[in-house]
TrEMBL record:
Name of the protein in its database record: Uncharacterized protein YbaP (TraB family)
Domain Copper amine oxidase-like N-terminal: 80-140
SUPFAM superfamilies referenced in this protein's UniProt entry, alphabetically: Copper amine oxidase, domain N
N-terminal signal peptide: 1-26
Naturally occurring in which organism (per UniProt): Paenibacillus tundrae
Coiled-coil stretches: none
Keyword annotations from UniProtKB, A to Z: Signal
Superkingdom: Bacteria
Amino acid sequence: MKNWKRMLLSLTVSVGLLASAVPAMAAPQETSVKVNDQAVQYATGAPILEKGTTLVPLRTTLDAMDVKLTTATDDTITAVVDGRTITLKSKLTRINGVTYAPIRIVGDAAGYEVRWDSATRTVLLVSKGGDTETVQTGGRGFMWEVEKNGNTVYLVGSMHVADESFYPLRPEFEEAFAEADYLGVEVDISTATDEQQKMVLDLGTYQDGTTLKDHISSETYASLGKLLKENGIEPDAFDTFKPWVVEITLGGLKSADGGYEASEGVDLYFIQKAVQRKIPVIELESYESQLGMFNNFSKELQEETLKATIDNFDVIDTSLNQMAEMWKTGDDEQLLELTNSFSDNEEYNKAMLVDRNIGMADKIDGYLKNGKGEEYFIVVGAAHYLGEHGIVKLLEDKGYTVERK
């Protein structure tokens, strides 16, 4: 069925929004860390995943990398690497008396390449070699450039769930970001609050005493129960949730099984770097608008998309592999084909792409016209850029020249 691909778009939009509000479908797996193939032993604390970021006990991890910690404040780390002092900006977290820091920022600053082994859920810190000729990048990806009156906007197409094979990004991404005054994203999933989690529960659960089986057909409910049972979950585990929440959660389970996680997404990668550089992160949308969009889908559309996800559950990871390959090759033709495939349902396409693209293009237009000589690095889902209603076409219609990079 063509319409099951909608789940992939739904998943990549909102996996970060739902991650902390929906009960886990399986017991969480522990994450480990290796430095040059040597496992790091943590006497106190352990690596954790928080709001899409892998955090590690700072002092123990630095010791394993042969880095001497000098000072650590709330947002600054000073350390000595190979006799030279480095300072990096990163928000630190205290948990049960242990100081935690984002592994990617710490590893990068200390001169290590940060990789992810999805099969063993291990963060691999590998000393970078001196031969730059042999460095492999994660792929071409999608990036466009627009200029107006001294202002520059880089448009980057993200996959919101990814794995370590996407990194390192090609130099053009890093060079453009290094000069940016602002990072723009759909929503900043690193700043989820209790209020936002409550919003997910208020919108995504039934408040009138009914349950999921009162709102979908008996056939779809039975198929869901069978799928959950096959995955070691109680058949009624999601009875309090609406179909759109269940659909996205199923997709999140399968993507994680395939090694694709929000913690490795392209947008979160740059959010972490923006925190390190202390540049503003601006949101082109909001939690309210994205969650409200899903919640306003018709009853028929919600069940149709949930049923398609259940029926195609076993091939979701294969399709994510294909999307990852499309991203790495930067294949515009395949991206356009994917984008156009969502137009089979007018209600879905209008809400997920058409209306949102107009709103984002209007904001980008404002950035280009503000006359402040600034550079914006915009990272939103790749599916938003191409096609008749894509951001690229909308900006061209406003008179801009958009150059593929």
